[in-house]
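Task card 7
Instruction: Convert sequence to structure tokens.
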Amino acid sequence: MKSVFDFSKTEIIVKLASKFSNVLMSRSLGKQAVSGIEKFKEVVLDYEGIEEIGQGFADEIYRIFTKTHPDASLFNANCISYVSFMIGRGKKVIN
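Output:
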């Protein structure tokens, strides 16, 4: 039974998690952005004000984090086209 006070959803303002930068390239910044969210089932990543993310950043969140936390669902908000493109690349699994 789900509790009325169940905190299972959160929103991450990526720009705040990244020390106010609008270009996020590194894997370590990806780790920092999702640090502590593993306890939530739904996470909205708000990319407002973010102009560019790198492959390492996207891979860390969308491949590695989701692989190690399969019960967490990630949703994206306010992505410009280039950020969406890189998120798509990060989701691809290379065998």
